[in-house]
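At this stage, I wrote out one protein, both as residues and as discrete backbone shape codes, and that material follows here.
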Amino acid sequence: MIRSEMIKVLVVHDDGVVEAGLRAVVSGESDVQLLTLPGHFRSDEEVAQACTYVKVDVLIVDYERNLRLTELLRTNAFPAPKPPRILVYTNRATQAEIRAALAAGAHGYLLGGCSPSDVTEGVRRVNRGMRHLSELATVRVVETMLHRRLTARETEVLSLLAQGFPNKLIADKLGVEIPTVKIHVAAILEKLGAHNRTEAVAIGTSRGLFATRAPAARPGVISNSAPDASSQSWVRTKDPSTRAVAHSDGVDRAPSKPVTDYGHLDMVSKHHQIPQRPS
């Protein structure tokens, strides 16, 4: 395969273990050129700036970084000749979250536990200008077209019902009157075709209408199992001066550092590290 046909892929995920798994999956593909940022380059600005100096075809990121990066690229703060197409890898599986990511600018959406072939096929499809969603994400999107949508406030009320909140506590939490809560509950039951609150919560859970506290997709893209995300663990990066902590929401966050001027960068190998500009 000639050089110009290689798909240049950059993986930047807040969970270092997931990032390593994704890199391992795509690096074995003959049509993929895996790019690497210097170990301490982790901020959104640094990633966006890298895309202005090096042609990145597909950028694989976590959910939150997708929202932030698409906003940066949209404002032209770091104008790239051809912005990368973004493939999200995440455990966020609600209809609202998937719609928000796609509306923000993501071109593909993969859910934790998907197969390696789903990842590589996603890379190729988004590189060709197509959309790619993993199976469950596709089901969630289709369901939004087949059923009546809940409003944002109704979704919030349903989430509180799932947590066992009675009308009075829901009213207090939302700063509304109890009759208003009853109106929202009645609308939820009618839209979901549910006979009671328990059934409404069951339907909402099965359709992914609200977020549930599920373990993060660790150790990565291959396994369907994941350790308890409620315990904290430390993940060392290549730079011994930085550490990323796995919080209770399953997201490893590394400290941000100032934007670095990359200067001119050349592509030299299949596994290419984007270098720092010499001082």
